[in-house]
């Protein structure tokens, strides 16, 4: 059987990210291109963890921190995406109480405590499912490191390698945290794979 070489198509954004960061060290205005490219994505991630009000401030702070620390960015990493998610996740951790309050409120009544609309509250009560309550409770009960890994994968759509880079942990740590978080969430949702010693998924 004749083997065929796998053709790897390089992602131009990866090289471009590193080049933009490098250029912004002498021409700070170039950093605006990084902001334009990733702000909506980072804002969406924070919004889904803490709500819209917090997302405005934390997403903006993420890019302020990144701008100030751009001289420390390792261009060999290529994409700034995991780096930005790592900054955002660390900023979210400062609001852990707010995140826990949000999950526990959702677990109790299916209502986001930051929602100001009476109609939204009523609609949430009508449409929220029991699974949604249990999922929110399960997320609230996860250890912070496990929750960060799970949500970076689920909300940020990061690869395991990107999560490891974002959180500055080993790849194996990402796998074990994600496996543990998935098992606990499955158990909370009544999935038999959530039983201790049950099937664990690493991909």
Characterise this structure:
By secondary structure, the protein is mainly α. It starts with 11 loop residues before the first helix and ends in a 15-residue tail after the last helix. It has helices at residues 12-24, 31-50, 52-68, 81-93, 96-109, 118-127, 130-141, 144-154, 160-167, 171-188. Mean pLDDT is 80; it is low at 5-9, 116-129 and 197-203.
**Strand tally:** 0
Strand content: under 5%
Helix content: 55-70%
- Terminus-to-terminus distance: 29 Å
Overall mean pLDDT stands at: 80
**How do the SSEs run, as a string of H and E?**
HHHHHHHHHH
If helices are DSSP runs of H or I spanning 4 or more residues, what is the number of helices? 10
Low-confidence stretches: 5-9, 116-129, 197-203
Structural class designation: mainly alpha
Give the C-alpha Rg: 19 Å
Concise structural overview:
By secondary structure, the chain is mainly alpha-helical. Helix content is 67%, strand content 0%.
Architecture blueprint of SSEs:
Blueprint: H1 12-24, H2 31-50, H3 52-68, H4 81-93, H5 96-109, H6 118-127, H7 130-141, H8 144-154, H9 160-167, H10 171-188
């Amino acid at each position: 059987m004749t083997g065929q070489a796998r053709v790897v198509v390089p992602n131009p954004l990866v090289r471009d990210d590193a080049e933009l960061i490098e250029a912004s060290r002498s021409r700070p205005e170039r950093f605006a291109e990084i902001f334009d490219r990733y702000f909506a994505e980072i804002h969406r991630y924070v919004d889904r963890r803490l709500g819209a009000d917090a997302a405005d401030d934390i997403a903006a702070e993420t890019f302020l921190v990144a701008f100030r620390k751009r001289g420390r960015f390792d261009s060999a990493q290529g994409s700034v995406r995991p780096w930005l998610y790592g900054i955002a996740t660390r900023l979210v951790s400062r609001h852990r109480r707010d995140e826990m309050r949000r999950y526990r409120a959702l677990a109790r009544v299916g209502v986001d405590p930051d929602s100001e609309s009476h109609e939204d509250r009523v609609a949430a009560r009508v449409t929220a499912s029991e699974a949604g309550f249990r999922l929110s409770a399960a997320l609230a009960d996860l250890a912070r490191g496990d929750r960060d890994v799970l949500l970076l994968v689920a909300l940020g759509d990061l690869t395991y390698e990107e999560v490891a880079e974002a959180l500055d942990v080993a790849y194996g740590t990402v796998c074990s945290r994600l496996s543990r978080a998935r098992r606990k969430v499955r158990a909370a949702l009544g999935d038999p794979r959530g039983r201790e010693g049950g099937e664990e998924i690493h991909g």
